[in-house]
Design a protein that fits this description.
single chain, binds 2-aminohexanedioic acid, 14 helices, seven-stranded mixed β-sheet, alpha/beta, aldehyde dehydrogenase (NAD+) activity, globular, five-stranded parallel β-sheet
Length: 506
């Protein structure tokens, strides 16, 4: 029996999620699946005026939602998590169709949404402020956290839904409406998520105002409307450093708040005492998983000279044997690159590395499906020096490997790049581990020991320093970015003592 056409599978999966929007709008924006390079839908794009109207609707929704008690808001997110569980297979498939992820990684991304929802439900009863000792008698000082306002969320193609949910689940319990501009490459997953949330909203009932969560489909015009609007209190943007350099200053100019989660150039260090088998597996997933298209992908590896011949040949063997294939039809570990330009970027980086004396293993294009699909063998590149393409993020499965002899020098190289997202050390030496995690160690927002750079859990704060943008999303106390803090001092005495002993007797 011939396999169903991809547009039919897409339409069926979208329908299962509850999407009613037309997927065949004449002259609309084409959505191309990297799995085959085929167009699977054409969508209506929102105009800037429609984006403005959506922002106004969000703003009206804020006035109602901020007054709903937080634990009640948590109940909406609890219902959403229930609906997500029901739609896990379909949403996972949409991630595979639009982003080309393996089935396991597609489902994993949906699981990440479920996890952050569960976290947020608990959080809805824990939006704690401090009680602070005051220097004045008969006074009490405390802080209160209030809803912030409309939250605009911009997401990238490589994680079509989880980063939205890290933001949306927290924002909703914090009392903020959400507006979502997904990547133009992955708008269908966004519509599917919204449909699943709509099911939860229908169950939740009238307390949730209209327009509490909206999706805006389109390109820069739609993004700019959100970024430039004074009504959008917080912009949380995931994407390239180039995008962040545009968005950050624009939002700052209007004194808006920003969470930026931008590029990384994540590295691992393999020390002499490492558990080599464990390191091998962690590096393989970190560097080849998601076809190297995670912001947390391991892109650089520093290996101590004494173990270089132990681990690098084993890694090369893993690279040679890794399965690359269609994620909808095979259980292959590596799916396609997102598009032709990603492939060209990879070729250019490998050429540059070769010109600098690098030895490349892998990187060949694979003939899988039509010519419009870009599958590649992941590449491992032995580099004589830490330079050239090694210093920047190429969003493709390339791992640059270098040798080191001195740990401090390795650490220095580790930190000598623009990105500051994720990092890993493989060691069983307590001193090396603690130095790596110390103030003079890894300068990244995520520093791991004996696990890879990718695949963070939602419980921790996610994000990084330097060109990664400095934002933190997801767990820990990231929720505070979605609320405003008021410091309250209450005088219950009959006197009016001034702070700092100041007198002002009239
Ligand atoms: C991203 O690539 O933008 O840690 C996010 C990870 C995932 C999130 C990646 N939890 O790899």
């Amino acid at each position: 029996m011939p396999a169903k056409p991809l547009d039919a599978v897409t339409a069926e999966t979208m329908k299962n999620c509850g999407v009613t929007t037309s997927l065949n709008v004449e002259g609309g924006m084409a959505v191309v699946s990297p799995v085959s390079g085929e167009t699977v839908a054409t969508l209506k794009v929102h105009t800037a005026a429609e984006a403005e109207a959506a922002i106004a609707k969000s703003s009206a929704a804020f006035r109602t939602w901020r007054m709903v008690p937080a634990p009640r808001r948590g109940e909406l997110v609890r219902l959403f998590a229930e609906e997500l569980r029901k739609s896990k297979e379909d949403l996972g498939r949409m991630v595979s169709i639009e982003a080309g992820k393996s089935p396991s990684e597609g489902l994993g991304e949906v699981q990440e949404m479920i996890d952050i929802c569960d976290f947020s439900v608990g959080l809805s009863r824990q939006l704690y402020g401090l009680t602070i000792a005051t220097e004045r008698p008969g006074h009490r000082m405390m802080e209160t956290w209030h809803p912030l306002g409309v939250v605009g969320i911009i997401t990238a193609f490589n994680f079509p839904c989880a980063p939205w949910c890290w933001n949306a689940a927290l924002a909703l319990v914090c009392g903020d409406p959400v507006l979502w501009k997904p990547s133009e490459k992955t708008p269908l997953t966004a519509l599917a998520c919204q449909a699943v949330l709509d099911r939860a909203l229908a169950r939740f009932g009238k307390e949730a105002p209209e327009g509490l969560s909206q999706v805006l489909i389109g390109g820069p015009a739609v993004g700019e409307a959100m970024v430039d609007s004074e009504t959008v209190a917080l912009i949380s943007a995931t994407g390239s450093t180039r995008m962040g350099r545009i968005v950050g200053p624009k939002v700052a100019a209007r004194f808006g708040k920003c969470i930026l989660e931008l590029g990384g150039n994540n590295a691992g260090i393999v020390c002499p005492s490492a558990d080599m088998d464990m390191a091998l597996r962690a590096i393989a997933f970190g560097a080849m998983g998601t076809a190297g298209q995670r912001c947390t992908t391991m892109r650089r590896l520093f290996v101590h000279e004494s173990v270089y011949d132990q681990i690098v040949p084993a890694l090369k063997k893993a690279y040679a044997s890794v399965s690359v294939g269609n994620p909808l039809e095979t259980p292959a570990l590596v799916g396609p690159l997102i598009d032709k330009s990603a492939y060209e970027g990879m070729v250019a980086a490998l050429d540059e590395a070769k010109a600098l004396g690098g030895t490349v293993d892998g990187g060949e294009r694979q003939k899988i499906g039509p010519d419009t699909a870009y599958y590649v063998k992941p590449a491992i590149v032995e580099m004589p020096k830490h330079e050239g393409p090694v210093l920047r993020e190429t969003f493709a499965p390339i791992l640059y490997v270098m040798t080191y002899s001195d740990f401090d020098a390795a650490l220095e190289m580790h930190n000598a790049v623009g990105g500051g997202l994720s990092s890993a050390i493989f060691t069983t030496d307590l001193r090396e581990m603690e130095v790596f995690l110390s103030a003079k160690g890894s300068d990244c927002g995520i520093a791991n020991v004996n696990i890879g750079t990718s695949g963070a859990e939602i419980g921790g704060a996610f994000g990084g320093e330097k060109e990664t943008g400095g934002g933190r999303e997801s767990g820990s106390d990231a929720w505070r970015a979605y609320m405003r803090r008021a410091t309250n001092t209450i005088n219950y005495s009959t006197e009016l003592p001034l702070a700092q002993g100041v007198t002002f007797d009239i």
